[in-house]
Amino acid sequence: MSDAIPVSETFPSQAPTGGQTIRPNEAAHFGALARDWWDPKGSSAMLHRLNPVRLGFVREAIDLHWSGDVRARHPLDGKSALDVGCGAGLLCEPLARLGADVTGVDAAPENTAAAAHHAEGSGLDIRYMAGELADLDLGQFDLVTCLEVIEHVADKGAFVRQLAESLAPEGLLILSTPNRTLKSRVLMVGAAETTGLIPRGTHDWDDFIAPEDLSQLLAAAGLEMGEPRGIAFSPAKGLHLSSDLSLNYIVTARRG
How far apart are CA 201 and CA 210, in angstroms? Predict the structure, then answer.
C-alpha cells in the first residue's frame, strides 16, 4: 500500500446531501447497462470475471464467521442476506443458492427489474427493491454485502451508517471497493475505461477510498473492519485474491 493516497473525512467530490446517498447520474449510468448485465461478454464483462474471486472471499468469510462446515452446500440456510447496490443480481443469485433469504437493493429500477426477471428464469425467489436504502425500512439482516458500490455514493458516511443499521447484532458485513492509489488511477480509470474493459464514465478516482479511510468510516458507524484482502491481476493468475491492495480490496466488518 506504499502508493495509497489517504483522503480526509470529507471526500473531494462529496457535497452535503442531507443523508441522501444516491446520485441520479450514477443511477442512470448503471441503469443504462441493465439490458446486458448478465452477458459475460457485454458491458459488465469485468464484473463476470471479478465475481468468482469475490465469491471465494464471501464463502470463506461466511464459514469463518459462523464456524460453518466448508463442505456444506447451503451455509446460509436459515439466514437473511441483503445485497446493497445489487445491479442485476450477480451476487444475489449465488447467495440464494447458498441458502439465504435474499433481498437486493439498487439505485436504478432498471437494474432491479432485470434482476427480478433473471431470478424468475433461474427459479430463484429473491426480493428486489429500488431506492434509497434508508427509505425502504427493510429491517436487519444476518449478512450484508456491498461490493463495488461505496465509490459511487454521494454521502459515504451516511451510507456506511445505513449499512450498519441494516446489520443484525451478530451479523457480517462484506464490502469491496477500489483503493485510492496512483496505480488504480492509471489502470482502472485510465487504461480500463479507455480500452473499454470498463464502460467509460464508470469511475471517478476522487471517490476511491483507501483502506485506512474505510476503516474510519466503519468505526464511526460502530463497526470494526477486518484485515483487507487485495483483488489483484497478473497475466499468469488473472484476477485473484492477494496481499496486494493497490488496485482493489475486499473486507469484512462486524460490530465492535
Answer: 21
